[in-house]
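Revision sheet: structure tokens.
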Amino acid sequence: MYRFGWFSTGRDKAARDLFETAFNAINQGDIEAEIAFVFCSREPGESEESDRFISMVNNNKIPHISYSYKKFKNGRVDGKQRNGLPQWRLEYDRAVMQRLKDFKPDLCILAGYMLIVGKEMCKRYNMINLHPAAPGGPTGTWQEVVWQLIESRANKTGVMMHLVTPELDKGPVVSYCTFSITGNPFDEYRRQLNGQDINRIKTRQGENNPLFRLIRQHGLKREFPLVLASMKAFSESKVRIIDGKVIDSKGNVIGGYNLTSEIDKIIGD
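Predicted:
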């Protein structure tokens, strides 16, 4: 059976909701796989939110490992950098891998894991992460992505899963879906911004801007479906990762598995 590893900081309700959605899909037989373990970068007692996440994992009787990166960091900040990360981060990754040495996941999902993964851990595991843009689209946080789409007057965007590499949001695209951000009401909201300074709109309206909210809404409702559809595709060998390359069922190297039609159907249903 296909085995997933699950990495999360468990810092908010979204982290719990995504885990619960994935667990239910597996438990109901929609995805023929198992979650082999859950790793949380917080320990019990660090925050109410992560405590809720850890309790949910334990209640579902999934092997769970917690190791606080904040506690590990204390006393280890020496300013040294290696491969773009502080030395303590690389040491933390090694400590995490030691704690996970008995698990053999086929693929790891980063789901609200609030740490950049170092080179050694990227070599140890195939790990994928969600990014709120289409392949070739903007990088950065979801807020930065949306504003870049507005500023560039983009006609299309999407959501993708990419292979985790030490360079943030730069790994090969694993799976994705796209959607249009033209037509009404997108165009009407866009016209309202004509001639205005976008930086000033950002400062004055922020996330309350109607176009910003609309783009985010359409992306957000595709995020969970894409994660689940990607997990299903991996469990059915429709897509694989071999030597850092994304491979389809015929053994061809691809620039990402296009799940747009599947996601559109899920949203329509």
